[in-house]
Amino acid sequence: MSSSKHIAQKVGFISLGCPKALVDSEQILTQLRAEGYEISPSYEDADLVVVNTCGFIDSAVEESLDAIGEALAENGKVIVTGCLGAKEDGDVVKKAHPQVLAVTGPHALPEVMSAIHTHLPQPHDPYTSLIPPQGIRLTPKHYAYVKISEGCNHRCTFCIIPSMRGDLVSRPIHQVMQEAEHLVNAGVKELLIISQDTSAYGVDVKYRTGFWQGTPIKTRLTELAQALGTLGVWVRLHYVYPYPHVDDVIPLMAEGKILPYLDVPFQHANPRILKAMKRPANAENNLARIQQWRKICPEITLRSTFIVGFPGETEAEFEELLDFLREAQLDRVGCFAYSPVEGAAANQLLDPVPEELKEDRRERFMQLQEEISRQRLAEKIGQRMTVMIDELTEDEMIARSSADAPEIDGLVYVENAVNAQPGDFIEVEITDSDAHDLFATMI
Ligand code: SF4
Questions:
Q1: Which among 38, 58, 334, 357 is placed 20 to 30 Å from 221, CA to CA?
Q2: Is residue 331 in contact with ligand 1, taking CB distance under 6 Å?
Q3: Is any ligand 1 atom within 6 A of the Cβ of residue 156?
Q4: Model confidence over 198-251: pLDDT tens digits?
């Protein structure tokens, strides 16, 4: 029996190889103890065995493969790390012992811990641990934000985020996936992926290969979206800049792996203004890109934000933005009148637009978008769709469809409430609409 009153998670450990491998072993063992795992001296008593291997010379390879074989025979649940794990991308181990749960290379503490968490969940003692495995969340139980990176490599002239938070730092992909898994295990039904620049995920680490569930996986948006798409919950991408590689995630939306929803902050449509804003993407291709996305995934919902009244914005440039809006037919749009943030480079630009004019432009912009939104929502009347319940009131259910991110988009009001809970998915038929929301009955 374990000394822990509530959960006995015991890990057996075989450490082979040189002093560098030994240090790796010590680090893994230290981390295991810090997280509340126990170290087991025998195969029979362990819930899982880690074998830290050596791959330096043939005899060391043989000794390592034998040790893995013995652990598999005696225990059955084996994770392999160390130098042999790095040989041929793990294939040497996998070919000899296909039953191993995960293979990593040397100095791979986070990857080893991630594999252990996957196959032997971290002990959680409700009497001593104040933090649940999914962490402390401020959102309702059924949805959660997952931040995949911090900081930003761009220098948009209206923004001071890079000066406050620094350049892009992507979280290791195994860590993001592990957090996502914990959230799903805790009952979360929708993951909202956020960062300053989601499409840039992994640029800072040169799309480094990490490990998740024993499989190599690149630190890159497409691979992340693919992996998240296997968790069986709604996955919604926010703050995605329209770089060309974003096109690769649209098929995942068409296949139903992640929600057909893209939050793309275009900010403006006039090339001169976009240049003055130092925006990362160029305007000319945006319309073509939108058309292409809709061709691949016709049901895609596009959300964006814009700034009007940027210093120097002329009436003609503003009109160009309205034309873009008419043509792009975006589903959800937010608009801000430019306001100078202390420390932003754009404050030095000449020709500030007078406050009244900025406000007037914002109103014209929103009026146009309201018409577009009203029309697009009216086209949904008669359609059937799956919605997720957010809240129950006395006489209706307040829900969201794939087109609605919490807090910022519209809602689906469903009549004839049944015995359902927030986080439940139900099928509805749309009966009515207005400029922002849909009204429906349950099927
Ligand atoms: S607005 Fe520009 S600089 Fe600011 S966080 Fe977004 S991409 Fe980075």
A1: 334
A2: no
A3: yes
A4: 999 999 999 999 988 888 999 999 999 999 999 999 999 999 988 888 999 999
